[in-house]
TrEMBL record:
Pfam families: FAD_binding_5. The lineage of its organism: Bacteria, Bacillati, Actinomycetota, Actinomycetes, Mycobacteriales. It comes from Nocardia vinacea. This is FAD binding domain-containing protein. InterPro entries: Diverse_Substr_Oxidored, FAD-bd_PCMH, FAD-bd_PCMH-like_sf, FAD-bd_PCMH_sub2, Mopterin_DH_FAD-bd. Residues 1-174 form the FAD-binding PCMH-type domain.
Length: 275
């Protein structure tokens, strides 16, 4: 879509682009959402891709993902051999409501900052216990847990001119055993519910992340594998106003699916096989 209110495009911003932020600005990376709908309040676009941030940097401490890393790059990335949870990269890329052609432009950071309930990069990074590095317009920097970034449907913690610079996934999370369940009304449709569970090697713990069905990510942690009743109680304790409602599902439907799939996950990780 043409954005006919835009009067300026900054193609080569400074290394800390937030310093020049003003009302009517928008960060431009992939632009897959920015150009999909009218943006009547915008006057200027600031192109982040020109900054040349590294997309994917594996190391002994984990994986650093630049905010401008494209979905295609993440999907093509080969995790290290002991990163058992690396299979989730492809799983979450394939959860996008988009074609592979969009993957060439859509960015990991853009999907996170959109803060939509069904954002699969949110699901991935929350489930893998990531942290986000944020750059503020005044030049300061802060680090926030991925689980705390999204506040609600299309709402996040970013202030005016603040930017998501990178995502850091710790190696301990990447080495965990993992499984997932996702439900959508059609095979390639938007997620109605997306659950990811991880388990530390040699333990019976459980970290269950619930997204798409809730307005913000919900993470349930257990030091030992719960029984069916205990797991159900934790899911039933999720506040009613967190369950999301849209044409893809009612809150009651999503609540039911969460309990149903969580029990499947519990059995799978307890018995070592899919129920």
């Amino acid at each position: 879509m043409d954005l006919n209110t835009i009067t300026d495009l900054v193609r080569r911003p400074s290394d800390r682009p937030g310093a020049a932020w003003r009302d009517g600005d928008a960060w431009l990376a992939g632009g897959t959402w920015l150009f999909s709908t009218e943006q009547p309040d915008l006057r200027r676009l600031i192109d982040l891709t020109a900054l040349g941030w590294d997309s994917l940097v594996p190391s002994a401490v984990g994986l650093e993902i630049g905010a401008t890393c494209t979905v295609r790059e993440l999907n093509s990335f080969a995790p290290l051999s002991d990163w058992a949870a690396g299979t989730l990269f492809t799983t979450c890329c394939e959860a996008f409501l988009s074609s592979f052609k969009v993957w060439n432009a859509a960015t990991v950071g853009g999907n996170i900052c959109m803060a939509l309930p069904a954002g699969p990069m949110i699901t991935l990074t929350v489930a893998l216990e990531a942290t986000y590095t944020l750059w503020a317009a005044d030049g300061s920097e802060r680090t926030i847990n991925a689980a705390d970034f999204v506040l609600g449907d299309h709402r996040n913690v970013l202030g005016p001119g603040e930017i998501l610079r990178r995502i850091d996934i710790p190696v301990a999370a990447l080495r965990k055993r993992c499984t997932h369940r996702r439900f959508s009304l059609t095979r390639l449709g938007r997620s109605t519910l997306f659950l990811i569970a991880t388990q530390s090697p040699g333990t019976a713990d459980l970290l269950l992340t619930i997204t798409a069905g809730t307005t913000r990510p919900v993470r349930l942690a257990f030091d030992a594998m719960p029984d069916a009743d205990a797991l159900r109680e934790r899911i039933d304790a999720i506040p009613e106003d967190l369950w999301f409602s849209d044409p893809n599902g009612t809150p009651d439907h999503r609540h039911h699916l969460a309990g149903y799939f969580a029990e499947q996950i519990r059995v799978e990780l307890t018995e070592g096989g899919r129920p």
